[in-house]
């Protein structure tokens, strides 16, 4: 069973063609840095079928992003970091 792309809603309009882009070399590390900064989502479906009978369907979804993208920095909140007491790491010291 194939999934029709129109099932996912209206397609986004494409920007007008402005001609070809100039030839530019991009280092692999720069490309990975840009992808991880914004994060990427990879999705896919795998269907195992015999004689047009779907036996197994696996939906694959992966979010790939740097930790700094998904988790805010504790220093950006402006407050001090909590300090645990040495004897009881699960309890915060009383003020």
Automatic annotation (TrEMBL):
Residues 1-22, 69-95 are annotated as: Disordered. It comes from the Bacteria. The keyword Metal-binding does not apply. Keywords: Gas vesicle. One of its GO terms (molecular function) is structural molecule activity. One of its GO terms (cellular component) is gas vesicle. It is found in: Gas vesicle. The keyword Repeat does not apply. PANTHER family: GAS VESICLE PROTEIN A1, GAS VESICLE STRUCTURAL PROTEIN 2-RELATED. Belongs to the gas vesicle GvpA family. This is Gas vesicle protein.
């Amino acid at each position: 069973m194939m999934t029709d792309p129109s099932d996912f809603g209206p397609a986004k309009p494409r920007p007008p063609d402005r001609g070809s882009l100039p030839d530019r070399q991009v280092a692999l590390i720069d490309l990975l840095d840009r992808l991880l900064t914004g994060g990427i989502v990879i999705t896919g479906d795998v269907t195992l079928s015999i004689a047009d009978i779907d036996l197994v369907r696996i939906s694959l979804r992966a979010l790939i992003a740097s930790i700094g993208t998904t988790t805010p920095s504790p220093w950006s909140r402006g407050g001090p970091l909590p300090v645990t007491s040495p004897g009881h790491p699960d309890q915060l010291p009383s003020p």
